Amino acid sequence: PAVVVPSVPGGAVNDPAGAKSYASGRLSAYGWGQDQFQCLAQLWTKESNWLTTATNPYSGAYGIPQALPPGKLSSAGSDWLTSYRTQVDWGLAYIADRYKSPCGAWSHSVANNWY
Q1: How far apart are CA 35 and CA 70, in angstroms?
Q2: pTM across the whole model
Q3: Measured between alpha carbons, how far is 4 from 69 in angstroms, rounded to an integer?
Q4: Which residues of 84-112 are buried (b: 16+ CB within 10 A; e: fewer)?
Q5: Count of beta carbons in the 10 Å neighbourhood of residue 43
Q6: How far is CA 37 from CA 32, 75, 101, in A?
Q7: What is the pLDDT of residue 8?
Q8: Which of these, 9, 83, 91, lies nearest to 47 by C-alpha position?
Q9: How far is 51 from 16, CA to CA, in rounded Å?
Q10: Whether 110 contacts 103, CB under 8 Å
Q11: How far is the C-alpha of 104 from the C-alpha of 40, rounded, in Å?
């Protein structure tokens, strides 16, 4: 099937440093310590280089957490195409639900080349 890549409106902010800072500040909301940030940083650097508009041309996965399909990100906010905060919030909730922690997600990614 054809890969559907989202059309990104103007106003998208690619701010890897800002996204990392925001994500680091959100870890405690999930009961995670700062020790989890290294795993998260490695994971999302590998996936998207922390770019809000990162798009996988083969799968269509989108955003910092590389959501597939991209529309999943909309559950975290209507600005999911352009806001690193919305993408980080969705990505952390996904990691908590599926892998329990960023280090759990990173371990899975290292072993399987996806998360």
Answers
A1: 28
A2: 0.92
A3: 9
A4: bbbbbbbbbbbbbeebebbbbbbebbeee
A5: 24
A6: 9, 23, 10
A7: 67
A8: 91
A9: 6
A10: no
A11: 10
